[in-house]
Amino acid sequence: MTTRPTQSNERIEVARTVAAEPATVFRLLCDPQGHVAIDSSGMLQSATGAPVGAVGDTFVVHMDREALNDYPMGEYDVTVEITAFEQDREVAWTVTGRIRPQIGHVYGYVLEPVEGGTSVTSYYDWSTIAPEWLDAGIFPVLSEGALRATLGILARTVAPPAGHPVGDPGGPGGP
Prior knowledge:
Helices cover 21% and strands 34% of the residues. The protein is of the alpha+beta class. It has a single domain (6-158), classed as START domain (Alpha-D-Glucose-1,6-Bisphosphate, Chain A, domain 4, 2-Layer Sandwich), CATH 3.30.530.20. The model is unreliable at 1-5 and 166-175 (pLDDT under 50).
């Protein structure tokens, strides 16, 4: 089940119910490799670091901006810093890197247990970005569709459709 997106001039939210317990979804969202596995943009290439467990924890993501074909940044690394952490309920982060001033946009997920699984809300908020970036007119970098697609990948990653395990020729990831 999906819900209607919430959008403002500075924030996008989309939600979807997935057939997995909040703890299962949260574990994936706290794992740097989980971020790479569910990325729909194609920018996240790999990650280095341990799963996060608190505000202030960090890990490194190896990026390739050519996947979006919007700015010729090529390959680069960013540091993901956790800005909100409530076990099995919410995780959010900002991204720091070589760009100055730092941008200050926030990505996050809110989880709610529901019958049959978890309602997962993905959000992208650029309400606190540096004025230079706001004036550049480049936000949002990712669309509502990209957030929705990531939720679809998350859903199939934590709970493959019944009868079609991931890699099964008749299921996701098969020919």
